[in-house]
Amino acid sequence: MASLPSTPHTQLPLPLDEGGKPVKNEALLELLPVHVVTKASQLPIDFLEPSPQTKLVIGFDCEGVDLCRYGTLCIMQLAFPDAIYLVDAIEGGEMLMRACKPALESSYVTKVIHDCKRDSEALYFQFGIKLHNVVDTQIAYSLTEEQEGRKRPLDDYYISFVGLLADPRYCGISYLEKEEVRVLLRQDPKFWTYRPLSKLMIRAAADDVRFLLYIYDKMLEKLNQRSLWHLSVRGELYCRCFCVNDNGYADWPSLPSTPDDLIADGDAPEEEILSVLDVPPGKMGCVIGKRGSSILSIKESCNAEILFGGSKGPRDKVFIIGPVKQVRKAEAMLKGRMPEIR
Questions:
Q1: What is the pLDDT of residues 95-143, one digit of tens each?
Q2: How far is CA 64 from the centre of its chain?
Q3: What is the pLDDT of residue 299?
Q4: Rounded to an integer, what distance in angstroms lies between the CA atom of residue 322 and that of residue 114?
Q5: N or C: which end of the chain has fewer CB within 10 A?
Q6: Is 289 left (phi over 0), alpha (psi -120 to 50) or beta?
Q7: Is 283:315 a contact under the CB 8 Å cutoff?
Q8: Shortest CA distance to 212 belongs to which of 256, 175, 157, 253?
Q9: Degrees, nearest 5: CA angle 305-310-314
């Protein structure tokens, strides 16, 4: 067993206007430099060469076309306390992404991200990178709500990044520009492939990571040790969730062990796992039910996350994450609805 590793903190104060409110995003854009990276030499050496002596915490995100195993990862955003780096995967190509691999797989670099699943899938299948040591703010938000006795509706369980930014407990920032980019993406799905990067593209990419370090510190202030352990384990499980392969994730890092302090208190959390359930072709509708009714009923009975690949895939698979007993219970209920997968 092991103790919970100490997490290096970083702080990015939000400037306030005369009324005590955070200034608009446009003003913050001028305060923090943004660098477009096409060569590894343009990145900080502490990032390229991870070390226990120089542990880092960075904001992290990816942009692309249909971001998943079959899509195209175009930009990788890295937010440091003093600058934002936009890693251009199109111009820099395989060589640049290969230079970033040690940091993305390192335990010495904490990657703060909102919803890691598709980013991790794209990195794994397109560049052979196993994203490791993430703090997923979507998971952290749910854990904080649960810890403080609040429960989100099962049909609206995951908070969006825009919603998280707007929450005054974490940031209190309006992100109206996000909808502008979403409209452009609907009109032209290849938006992120165009070069040179426009001012709008640079601003939009930078804004997706600009506040993550600040939110990270706010969340660490709220989470207790038990929740921090859940956050660490679930981050690892979510990273590998859609990266399903034939070896059962054997090539991925081992999951964090239970902290000694929690064991000593006699309140050790149950082991958490990821289970992948194969569904016969054409039977996914039976699993989900009309308007998701079947899944909602199972979620009401089991303390486990139930995820689907949807249109991006992986198709014909259900991913279940949670404590072992709850995952097995969810599996049994799902199989009970379909004799074909018993």
A1: 999 999 999 999 999 999 999 999 999 999 999 999 999 999 999 999 9
A2: 15
A3: 87
A4: 19
A5: C
A6: left
A7: no
A8: 175
A9: 90
CA dist 13 and 222 (Å) reads 17
Residue with the two structure tokens 């969730």 = 241
Q: How far apart are the first and last CA of the chain?
A: 36
Query: What is each CA distance from 156 to 63, 210, 295, 312, 326, in whole angstroms?
Result: 24, 25, 13, 21, 20
Measuring CA to CA, how many Å separate 111 from each of 35, 77, 195? 18, 11, 27
Structure tokens at 334: 């799902």
